[in-house]
Amino acid sequence: MNIDSMMQFRLSYLQLVAWGWESPQNYAAIVTAADGFTLFTQLKLPRPPWTMSLKLSDPLTVLQASGFAPAATGGWIGPRARLTIDFPAPPAVATDHPAALASYYSELPSPFGEPPPGPQPPGVASGAGGHGMGHMSDALVLGGVIVRALAISWADASFRQQLIGGAPINGLLMDYLGYNFPWNMDLIGRAGASAFIFPQQGARGCWSPTPTNAIEMYVPRHPQLGGPQDALALAAYNQTGDQYPLTCP
Protein backbone atom coordinates (compact mmCIF):
# COMPACT_ATOMS: atom_id res chain seq x y z
CA MET A 1 0.00 0.00 0.00
CA ASN A 2 1.07 3.59 -0.35
CA ILE A 3 -0.21 7.05 0.38
CA ASP A 4 -1.40 7.51 -3.20
CA SER A 5 -3.91 4.69 -2.78
CA MET A 6 -5.43 6.45 0.24
CA MET A 7 -5.85 9.67 -1.70
CA GLN A 8 -7.24 7.77 -4.67
CA PHE A 9 -9.82 6.22 -2.41
CA ARG A 10 -10.95 9.65 -1.23
CA LEU A 11 -11.17 10.99 -4.77
CA SER A 12 -13.17 8.03 -6.08
CA TYR A 13 -15.42 8.00 -3.03
CA LEU A 14 -16.27 11.69 -3.49
CA GLN A 15 -17.19 11.03 -7.12
CA LEU A 16 -19.37 8.16 -5.95
CA VAL A 17 -21.20 10.45 -3.51
CA ALA A 18 -21.80 12.99 -6.30
CA TRP A 19 -23.18 10.20 -8.51
CA GLY A 20 -25.47 9.09 -5.68
CA TRP A 21 -26.90 12.60 -5.43
CA GLU A 22 -27.95 12.55 -9.09
CA SER A 23 -31.03 10.41 -8.37
CA PRO A 24 -32.71 8.41 -5.59
CA GLN A 25 -32.08 5.28 -7.66
CA ASN A 26 -28.34 5.92 -7.68
CA TYR A 27 -28.27 6.48 -3.93
CA ALA A 28 -30.26 3.30 -3.34
CA ALA A 29 -27.78 1.36 -5.47
CA ILE A 30 -24.94 2.64 -3.29
CA VAL A 31 -26.40 1.78 0.11
CA THR A 32 -27.65 -1.65 -0.98
CA ALA A 33 -24.48 -2.81 -2.72
CA ALA A 34 -22.94 -5.97 -1.28
CA ASP A 35 -19.48 -4.43 -1.64
CA GLY A 36 -18.95 -0.76 -2.47
CA PHE A 37 -15.77 -1.51 -4.39
CA THR A 38 -17.84 -3.23 -7.06
CA LEU A 39 -19.53 0.13 -7.69
CA PHE A 40 -16.12 1.74 -8.14
CA THR A 41 -15.47 -0.78 -10.91
CA GLN A 42 -18.90 -0.37 -12.52
CA LEU A 43 -18.56 3.41 -12.60
CA LYS A 44 -14.96 3.17 -13.85
CA LEU A 45 -13.63 4.89 -10.73
CA PRO A 46 -10.08 3.87 -9.78
CA ARG A 47 -10.13 1.72 -6.68
CA PRO A 48 -7.28 1.21 -4.24
CA PRO A 49 -5.46 -2.13 -4.24
CA TRP A 50 -6.81 -3.15 -0.84
CA THR A 51 -7.83 -6.70 0.02
CA MET A 52 -10.77 -5.67 2.15
CA SER A 53 -14.49 -5.11 1.72
CA LEU A 54 -16.31 -1.76 1.65
CA LYS A 55 -19.79 -1.39 3.12
CA LEU A 56 -21.67 1.80 2.21
CA SER A 57 -24.64 2.55 4.48
CA ASP A 58 -27.39 5.12 4.92
CA PRO A 59 -26.53 7.30 7.95
CA LEU A 60 -30.21 7.66 8.85
CA THR A 61 -30.26 3.98 9.81
CA VAL A 62 -28.15 4.76 12.87
CA LEU A 63 -28.39 8.51 13.47
CA GLN A 64 -31.66 10.37 13.03
CA ALA A 65 -30.05 13.82 13.02
CA SER A 66 -27.63 13.03 10.20
CA GLY A 67 -27.29 15.50 7.34
CA PHE A 68 -26.00 18.90 6.29
CA ALA A 69 -26.46 21.38 9.15
CA PRO A 70 -24.41 24.52 8.40
CA ALA A 71 -26.39 26.72 10.78
CA ALA A 72 -25.89 24.40 13.75
CA THR A 73 -22.44 22.95 13.10
CA GLY A 74 -20.96 24.71 10.08
CA GLY A 75 -21.05 21.43 8.20
CA TRP A 76 -22.26 17.85 8.33
CA ILE A 77 -23.60 15.67 11.13
CA GLY A 78 -23.22 11.93 10.75
CA PRO A 79 -22.12 8.66 12.37
CA ARG A 80 -18.49 7.64 12.52
CA ALA A 81 -17.14 5.21 9.98
CA ARG A 82 -16.20 1.74 11.20
CA LEU A 83 -13.05 -0.27 10.51
CA THR A 84 -13.61 -3.94 11.35
CA ILE A 85 -10.53 -6.08 12.02
CA ASP A 86 -10.36 -9.85 11.51
CA PHE A 87 -8.83 -11.55 14.58
CA PRO A 88 -8.58 -15.30 13.83
CA ALA A 89 -8.41 -17.89 16.57
CA PRO A 90 -5.00 -19.30 17.49
CA PRO A 91 -3.70 -22.52 15.94
CA ALA A 92 -4.52 -25.63 17.94
CA VAL A 93 -0.82 -26.46 18.34
CA ALA A 94 0.83 -23.93 20.66
CA THR A 95 4.24 -24.26 18.99
CA ASP A 96 2.65 -22.98 15.77
CA HIS A 97 1.71 -19.63 17.33
CA PRO A 98 4.91 -17.74 16.37
CA ALA A 99 4.71 -18.91 12.75
CA ALA A 100 1.00 -18.07 12.62
CA LEU A 101 1.57 -14.59 13.99
CA ALA A 102 4.40 -13.91 11.53
CA SER A 103 2.25 -15.19 8.68
CA TYR A 104 -0.68 -12.96 9.69
CA TYR A 105 1.60 -9.91 9.70
CA SER A 106 3.11 -10.79 6.32
CA GLU A 107 -0.38 -11.09 4.81
CA LEU A 108 -1.78 -7.96 6.54
CA PRO A 109 1.06 -5.54 7.31
CA SER A 110 -1.59 -2.82 7.37
CA PRO A 111 -5.33 -3.16 8.08
CA PHE A 112 -6.11 -2.34 4.44
CA GLY A 113 -4.42 -5.46 3.13
CA GLU A 114 -1.97 -5.84 0.31
CA PRO A 115 -2.45 -6.32 -3.44
CA PRO A 116 -1.69 -9.77 -4.85
CA PRO A 117 1.67 -10.20 -6.62
CA GLY A 118 1.90 -9.12 -10.24
CA PRO A 119 0.28 -6.36 -12.29
CA GLN A 120 -2.87 -4.81 -10.89
CA PRO A 121 -6.17 -5.23 -12.75
CA PRO A 122 -7.54 -2.29 -14.75
CA GLY A 123 -8.97 0.46 -12.57
CA VAL A 124 -6.80 -0.32 -9.53
CA ALA A 125 -4.74 2.63 -8.36
CA SER A 126 -0.96 2.29 -8.20
CA GLY A 127 2.03 4.53 -7.63
CA ALA A 128 4.39 5.49 -4.84
CA GLY A 129 5.19 8.54 -2.81
CA GLY A 130 3.06 11.66 -2.74
CA HIS A 131 0.98 13.06 0.09
CA GLY A 132 -2.67 12.31 0.69
CA MET A 133 -5.12 13.12 3.46
CA GLY A 134 -4.23 9.89 5.26
CA HIS A 135 -0.77 8.90 6.42
CA MET A 136 0.75 5.59 5.37
CA SER A 137 2.85 5.49 8.53
CA ASP A 138 -0.33 5.54 10.63
CA ALA A 139 -1.69 2.53 8.75
CA LEU A 140 1.57 0.61 9.19
CA VAL A 141 1.71 1.43 12.91
CA LEU A 142 -1.85 0.17 13.27
CA GLY A 143 -0.86 -3.04 11.47
CA GLY A 144 1.77 -3.69 14.13
CA VAL A 145 -0.67 -2.89 16.94
CA ILE A 146 -3.21 -5.32 15.49
CA VAL A 147 -0.64 -8.12 15.44
CA ARG A 148 0.29 -7.39 19.06
CA ALA A 149 -3.36 -7.40 20.09
CA LEU A 150 -3.83 -10.70 18.23
CA ALA A 151 -0.92 -12.26 20.14
CA ILE A 152 -2.35 -11.09 23.48
CA SER A 153 -5.77 -12.46 22.54
CA TRP A 154 -4.28 -15.92 22.02
CA ALA A 155 -2.82 -15.88 25.53
CA ASP A 156 -5.60 -14.05 27.40
CA ALA A 157 -9.17 -15.30 26.94
CA SER A 158 -10.66 -12.29 28.75
CA PHE A 159 -8.85 -9.86 26.46
CA ARG A 160 -9.96 -11.82 23.38
CA GLN A 161 -13.57 -11.68 24.54
CA GLN A 162 -13.34 -7.89 24.77
CA LEU A 163 -11.49 -7.70 21.46
CA ILE A 164 -14.09 -9.55 19.39
CA GLY A 165 -17.22 -8.63 21.38
CA GLY A 166 -18.53 -6.20 18.74
CA ALA A 167 -18.06 -2.96 20.69
CA PRO A 168 -15.49 -0.35 19.57
CA ILE A 169 -12.00 -1.34 20.72
CA ASN A 170 -10.36 2.09 20.44
CA GLY A 171 -10.32 2.41 24.25
CA LEU A 172 -9.23 -1.20 24.76
CA LEU A 173 -6.13 -0.70 22.61
CA MET A 174 -5.36 2.49 24.53
CA ASP A 175 -5.77 0.79 27.92
CA TYR A 176 -3.72 -2.31 27.09
CA LEU A 177 -1.22 -1.04 24.53
CA GLY A 178 -1.17 2.75 24.94
CA TYR A 179 -2.26 3.12 21.32
CA ASN A 180 -4.20 6.22 20.31
CA PHE A 181 -6.03 5.52 17.05
CA PRO A 182 -5.42 8.61 14.86
CA TRP A 183 -8.48 8.46 12.57
CA ASN A 184 -11.99 9.49 13.53
CA MET A 185 -13.43 6.01 13.11
CA ASP A 186 -14.62 3.21 15.35
CA LEU A 187 -12.36 0.18 15.43
CA ILE A 188 -14.35 -3.06 15.71
CA GLY A 189 -12.91 -6.53 16.30
CA ARG A 190 -14.48 -9.74 15.02
CA ALA A 191 -13.63 -13.43 15.25
CA GLY A 192 -11.90 -14.37 12.01
CA ALA A 193 -12.98 -17.52 10.20
CA SER A 194 -9.61 -18.37 8.65
CA ALA A 195 -7.38 -21.19 9.94
CA PHE A 196 -3.61 -21.49 10.04
CA ILE A 197 -2.25 -24.41 8.04
CA PHE A 198 1.02 -25.83 6.80
CA PRO A 199 0.24 -26.66 3.13
CA GLN A 200 2.96 -29.32 2.79
CA GLN A 201 6.00 -30.75 4.51
CA GLY A 202 8.62 -28.07 5.04
CA ALA A 203 6.45 -25.27 3.57
CA ARG A 204 5.77 -22.02 5.35
CA GLY A 205 2.46 -21.86 7.12
CA CYS A 206 -0.31 -19.58 5.89
CA TRP A 207 -3.86 -18.51 6.72
CA SER A 208 -6.66 -19.98 4.65
CA PRO A 209 -8.54 -18.02 3.57
CA THR A 210 -6.48 -14.86 4.05
CA PRO A 211 -7.96 -12.74 6.88
CA THR A 212 -9.84 -9.78 5.44
CA ASN A 213 -10.91 -6.60 7.17
CA ALA A 214 -13.83 -4.35 6.29
CA ILE A 215 -14.54 -0.64 6.26
CA GLU A 216 -18.08 0.72 6.64
CA MET A 217 -18.93 4.28 5.68
CA TYR A 218 -22.16 6.23 5.91
CA VAL A 219 -22.86 7.93 2.59
CA PRO A 220 -24.47 11.37 3.01
CA ARG A 221 -27.91 11.86 1.53
CA HIS A 222 -28.53 14.53 -1.07
CA PRO A 223 -29.28 17.76 0.85
CA GLN A 224 -31.63 18.98 -1.93
CA LEU A 225 -30.44 22.59 -1.71
CA GLY A 226 -30.10 23.32 -5.43
CA GLY A 227 -27.11 23.03 -7.79
CA PRO A 228 -24.62 25.63 -6.46
CA GLN A 229 -25.60 25.00 -2.84
CA ASP A 230 -25.29 21.26 -3.33
CA ALA A 231 -21.76 21.77 -4.60
CA LEU A 232 -20.95 23.81 -1.49
CA ALA A 233 -22.38 21.04 0.67
CA LEU A 234 -20.25 18.41 -1.07
CA ALA A 235 -17.14 20.55 -0.65
CA ALA A 236 -17.94 20.92 3.05
CA TYR A 237 -18.36 17.16 3.38
CA ASN A 238 -14.96 16.66 1.77
CA GLN A 239 -13.42 18.69 4.60
CA THR A 240 -15.39 17.09 7.44
CA GLY A 241 -13.00 15.10 9.59
CA ASP A 242 -15.26 13.32 12.06
CA GLN A 243 -17.54 11.82 9.45
CA TYR A 244 -14.97 11.24 6.71
CA PRO A 245 -12.55 8.32 6.69
CA LEU A 246 -8.79 8.43 6.53
CA THR A 247 -8.49 11.92 7.93
CA CYS A 248 -6.60 12.80 11.07
CA PRO A 249 -8.14 15.10 13.69
Topology overview:
Blueprint: H1 3-20, H2 24-31, H3 36-42, E1 53-57, E2 67-69, H4 70-73, E3 75-77, E4 81-88, H5 97-107, H6 136-155, H7 157-163, H8 170-177, E5 185-192, E6 195-197, E7 206-208, E8 214-218, H9 227-238
Parallel strand pairs: 1-8, 4-5
Antiparallel strand pairs: 2-3, 4-8, 6-7
Helix pairs in contact: 1-2, 5-6, 6-7
The whole-angstrom Rg is 19 Å
What is the total tally of β strands?
A: 8
> Helix share of residues?
25-40%
Rounded mean pLDDT score:
85
Task: Supply the number of helical segments.
Answer: 9
What is the spatial order of strands in the main beta sheet?
1-8-4-5
Overall, the morphology is elongated
Question: Which parts are unreliable, with pLDDT below 50 for 5 consecutive residues or more?
Answer: 124-134
Structural class of the helices, strands and pairings? Answer: alpha/beta
Order of helices and strands: HHHEEHEEHHHHEEEEH
Strand content: 15-25%
| End-to-end separation | 22 Å
Q: How does the major sheet shape up?
A: 4 strands, mixed
